[in-house]
Give the backbone structure.
Amino acid sequence: MDRALFLAMSGAKQDMQGMRVHANNLANVSTTGFRADLQQTRSMQVFGEGVPSRVFTMAERTGNDFAQGSVISTGRDLDIAIQGDGWLAVQDAGGKEGYSRAGHLNVDQMGMLQNSNGQLVLGRNDSPIFIPLPVNKIEISQDGTVSVIPKGAPSDVMVIVDRIKLVKPENRSLFKDTDGLFKVIGNRDPLDADASVSLAKGMLEGSNVNAVAEMTSMIDLQRHFEMQVKLMKTAEEMDKSSSSLMRIS
């Protein structure tokens, strides 16, 4: 009975972890620039003392769906969407460089350009972009150049402040960190800017999560979890029956 119980227990545990992945995707169905997490399960042998005669189910996050999300027009000057492949370079909480597709930008009271998560947007020399306040207007061009019209200056006087750092690494070289930012696997050095990445002004890229597919996957995992629980109950009943037979004999 122990083999059946162990298989059912490990399967139920991994089903719960899989549901967490899909639930997180559903929770971010409206998050700007979000990339859905992928999940799969596989069987693994249990190694230890003696012969490896047991297997268990292991759920793993295989990566992310890098398909582009739907792009909507907002008409807002500080809303930008990356056209095609590419990433915005931002600074994480530890001061390191990370990459994001979230283009809903703002300027804080100190004049620092940041995204909707409060992460500072990086420019030339891998340093945060500072906007010299006060300004009448901020414009971001297709190549990421940030220009402003200082307060009190004529409307045709544009001053270049900085240029947003845009990078284009191979998607297979990226992983999603715990803060939601993407980083290069095994690379601690900042990437070089890529001039081929272009922006669309007044646009935002939405999440690439397919809500219907995620709901279907959650329902399938829930039914599989219920099946594993029934198997555990069956194993318990069979164990009780065996014990009864032993007492009778």
